């Protein structure tokens, strides 16, 4: 109740301040039109029967949006779950269940149900969003509700698209943006961005280059401490002379810094009056140290104790190419892309001692029970993701009553997951004749030919994933729109897809020789041979057709009403530990795609001479056979996938933009979701019961922002203030052991003031003015409870130059 009152007071105060500073009433200026390509055609957001929110280039700059976390928090009905840069998943309209640990997200995780695109290139991956730094971006589009007919796999709940600025013919542009910021009790941050657009041949050829460097200072401390396994937390330690470990060599203040470095080069060629070509290449290096979740309950505010180095190096190269033009009466677009992403990560996993059912076996001499070794546990892994996509589509003219957009799409995805779980105690135990350790492939012909690293694992490696995961998809899609009358139109969309998914390699522990004459021992799996022996089809194939139906009605030029039924899909998956189990649980070998039926009605209005826009929608989502990660510590491999439950979501969302005067703009939005788990099969374990809310789905989200502009001497001046509110939510649908936590509601506030004169501009800004500790994601992904939070109060200055 207190937080709701605080939100109410903040909104009233902000509104009163805005209206109180209003000058004499003037003729309202019109709201700027935002053009999007949500229907694979360029159109105003107000003219298409699709629920889409877009942050245009000016709004991205006004909000000081720099990365994934920034644009997500300004989008109502969009949430994320994760643990820092490049380690999150996106959720829309409450369609979320859980976030699996990044150590397992590639080897044993679900595909995302929100697709992420950079221009026309799909770049989604489970558990590791591509965290593209927002430099020279034209807009961020969020398409809500299933978008599967046009955007394919993983567009079950919606699609997020980052649309970059393209080279402009016959225009020279130069822009520089530099910033410096300080975070309360944290380190300094700095940014430098530059953009140049060079016309090389009049009317024919231009190149555009954007480059950036951003260093984000840390604000979480790794404080000194020791860790000793506790029998009260995990009874397996009872009776052992346990050993402690210290983190004295890793103690560091503000250790969670991050940096983004990258550049994008685009070349545009106007071949003739009908055809043009575009080639773009982006390279980015993201580096992060430490962790971005803290432990206020057991350690302190913005403090943790970590016993192994936490680091992340995440680099990608994205090359895309587009050829578009006309063939007779058809608009033709061919676009392709190649993504090469490499991630190296290390993280502390010592908390596993508190939950592991057999962790004593890897740490102590269980035969004598008289000695235990260093309890430190860690993960060190590499994930390589390559993705190539091609799309050829055709569109008829907008002038005709019957309009068509359709084509063919092909995609080939490969994910290489080579992850080692390091237990120093395993090396010590390896000196005992009773505990031989190590893997030395080469003498056994049954070792998978598909392993990424065929060399012997180091002595301290207890478990490892050496897995290649592939997806190959061919799809045919189309949307046909017919104007029944001047005011009523109907759209039918179809997508037929055929997708192959494959899991190959090895998921094992380094005990003795891993592969025996039976191709599988009690320690792990040779996945290549396992599927054959169990009669499991490989690759796993799924083929289906999904649909979309829309009726839109425009009683006049200022109102659009629409109703939609739509479906989406995401790829099926294997379980690396399929077939394992206990008396009550058997891990399924495969899981199928979950089904989504979305029923939606929406409105878009432009009122008061286009000085007021009010858009919204109401919807119901029936989500069945939901792919989710289930935790059962009594089952080998702990986490596994299952089509574990059904759910229903009923919701409403709306946004308003109002220009009461030529100087003042007010933007607000809200969403409300009622999520409910409607069915839990008897085979599902440790999942929240029927009637429970889904995870990471705050019932109510709101934001309100006001911007006032005026002239001071030769300067254009402005101030801006905004608040964001998010309701309570649950952290997970998994209830065992102690994984489902209630996350508190929170309210944050930002403000800025600036001056601009011709080509120069300067701004002072403040983020998280009240220094709120938002509970964005409570997790036990490293087997210890921690809370991902927002950056503390940050004050900064930005200077821009445009020529």
Automatic annotation (TrEMBL):
Query: Has the keyword Nucleotidyltransferase been applied to this entry?
Result: no
Which superkingdom does the taxonomy of this entry point to?
Answer: Bacteria
Query: What Pfam families does the database record attribute to this sequence?
Result: Plug, TonB_dep_Rec_b-barrel
Subcellular location, record wording: Cell outer membrane
Q: Sorted alphabetically, which keywords does the UniProt record give?
A: Cell outer membrane, Ion transport, Iron, Iron transport, Membrane, Receptor, Signal, TonB box, Transmembrane, Transmembrane beta strand, Transport
Q: Where is the TonB-dependent receptor plug domain?
A: 45-159
Q: Which InterPro entries match?
A: Beta-barrel_TonB, Beta-barrel_TonB_sf, Plug_dom, TonB-dep_rcpt-like
Q: What topology does the record note for this protein and the membrane?
A: Multi-pass membrane protein
Q: Is NAD among the key words of this record? A: no
All copies of the TonB-dependent receptor-like beta-barrel domain together span 297-769
Identify the PROSITE patterns for this entry.
Answer: TONB_DEPENDENT_REC_3 (PS52016)
Q: Which residues form the signal peptide?
A: 1-26
Q: Output the PANTHER family linked to this UniProt entry.
A: FERRICHROME IRON RECEPTOR-RELATED, TONB-DEPENDENT OUTER MEMBRANE RECEPTOR
Per the record, the similarity remark reads: Belongs to the TonB-dependent receptor family.
Protein name per the record: TonB-dependent receptor
Q: Which organism is this entry from?
A: Microbulbifer celer
């Amino acid at each position: 109740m207190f937080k709701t009152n605080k939100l109410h007071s903040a909104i009233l105060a902000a509104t009163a301040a805005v209206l109180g500073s209003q000058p004499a009433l003037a003729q309202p200026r019109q709201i700027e039109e935002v053009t999007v390509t949500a229907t694979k055609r360029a159109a105003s957001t107000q003219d298409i029967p699709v629920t889409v929110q877009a942050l245009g280039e000016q709004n991205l700059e006004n909000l000081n949006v720099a990365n994934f976390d920034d644009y997500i928090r300004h989008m109502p009905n969009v949430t994320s779950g994760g643990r820092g840069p490049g380690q999150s998943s996106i959720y829309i309209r409450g369609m979320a269940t859980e976030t699996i640990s990044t150590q397992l997200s590639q080897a044993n995780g679900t595909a995302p149900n929100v697709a992420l695109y950079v221009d026309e290139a799909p770049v989604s991956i489970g558990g590791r969003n591509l965290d593209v730094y927002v430099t020279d971006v034209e807009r961020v589009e969020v398409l809500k509700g299933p978008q599967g007919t046009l955007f394919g796999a993983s567009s079950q709940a919606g699609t997020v698209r980052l649309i970059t600025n393209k080279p402009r013919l016959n225009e020279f542009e130069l822009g520089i943006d530099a910033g410096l910021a300080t975070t309360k009790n944290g380190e300094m941050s700095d940014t430098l961005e530059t953009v140049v657009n060079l016309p090389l041949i009049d009317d024919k050829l231009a190149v555009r280059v954007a480059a950036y460097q951003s260093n984000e200072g840390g604000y979480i401390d790794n404080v000194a401490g020791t860790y000793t396994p506790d029998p009260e937390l995990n009874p397996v330690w009872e009776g052992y002379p346990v050993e402690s470990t210290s983190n004295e060599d890793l103690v560091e203040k503000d250790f969670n810094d991050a940096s983004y470095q990258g550049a994008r080069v685009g070349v545009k060629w106007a071949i003739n009056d009908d055809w043009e070509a575009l080639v773009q290449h982006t390279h980015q290096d993201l580096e992060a140290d430490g962790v971005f979740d803290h432990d206020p309950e057991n350690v302190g505010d913005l403090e943790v104790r970590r016993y192994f180095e936490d680091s992340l190096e995440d680099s990608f190269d994205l090359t895309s190419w587009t050829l578009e033009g006309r063939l007779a009466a058809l608009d033709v677009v061919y676009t392709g892309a190649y993504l090469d992403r490499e991630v190296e990560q290390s993280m502390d996993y010592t908390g596993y001692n508190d939950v592991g059912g057999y962790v004593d076996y890897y740490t102590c001499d269980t035969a004598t029970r008289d000695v235990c070794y260093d309890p430190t546990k860690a993960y060190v892994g590499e994930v390589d993701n390559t993705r190539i996509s091609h799309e050829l589509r055709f569109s008829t003219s907008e002038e005709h009553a019957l309009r068509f957009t359709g084509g063919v799409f092909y995609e080939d995805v490969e994910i290489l997951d080579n992850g080692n779980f390091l237990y120093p105690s395993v090396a010590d135990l390896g000196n005992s004749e009773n505990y031989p350790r190590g893997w030395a492939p080469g003498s056994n012909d049954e070792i998978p030919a598909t392993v990424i690293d065929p060399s012997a694992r180091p002595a301290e490696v207890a478990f490892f994933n050496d897995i290649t995961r592939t997806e190959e998809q061919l799809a045919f899609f189309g949307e046909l729109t017919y104007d029944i009358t001047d005011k009523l139109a109907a759209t039918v969309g179809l997508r037929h897809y055929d997708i192959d998914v494959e899991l190959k390699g090895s998921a094992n522990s380094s005990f003795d020789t891993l592969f025996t004459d039976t191709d599988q021992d009690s320690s792990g799996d040779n996945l290549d041979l396992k599927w054959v022996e169990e009669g499991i089809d490989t690759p796993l194939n799924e083929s289906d057709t999904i649909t979309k139906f829309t009726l839109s009605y425009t009683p006049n030029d200022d109102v659009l009403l629409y109703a939609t039924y739509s479906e989406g899909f995401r790829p099926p998956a294997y379980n690396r530990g399929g077939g394992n189990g206990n008396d009550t649980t058997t891990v399924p070998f495969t899981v199928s795609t979950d089904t989504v039926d979305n029923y939606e009605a929406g409105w878009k209005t432009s009122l008061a001479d286009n000085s007021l826009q009010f858009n919204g929608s109401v919807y119901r989502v029936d989500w069945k056979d939901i792919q989710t990660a289930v935790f059962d510590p009594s089952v080998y491999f702990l986490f596994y996938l299952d089509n574990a439950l059904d759910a229903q979501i009923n919701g409403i969302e709306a946004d308003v933009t109002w220009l009461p005067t030529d100087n003042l703009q007010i933007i607000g939005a809200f969403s409300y979701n009622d999520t409910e788990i409607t069915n839990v099969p008897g085979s599902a374990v440790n999942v929240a019961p029927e009637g429970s809310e889904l995870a990471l789905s705050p019932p109510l989200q709101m934001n309100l922002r006001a911007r006032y502009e005026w002239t001071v001497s030769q300067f254009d001046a402005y101030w801006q203030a905004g608040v964001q509110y998010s309701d309570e939510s649950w952290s997970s649908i998994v209830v065992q052991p102690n994984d489902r936590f209630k996350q508190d509601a929170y309210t944050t506030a930002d403000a800025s003031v600036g001056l601009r004169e011709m080509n120069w501009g300067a701004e002072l800004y403040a983020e998280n003015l009240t220094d709120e500790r938002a509970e964005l994601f409570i997790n036990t992904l490293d087997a210890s409870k921690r809370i991902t939070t927002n950056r503390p109060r940050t004050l900064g200055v930005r200077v821009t130059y445009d020529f």
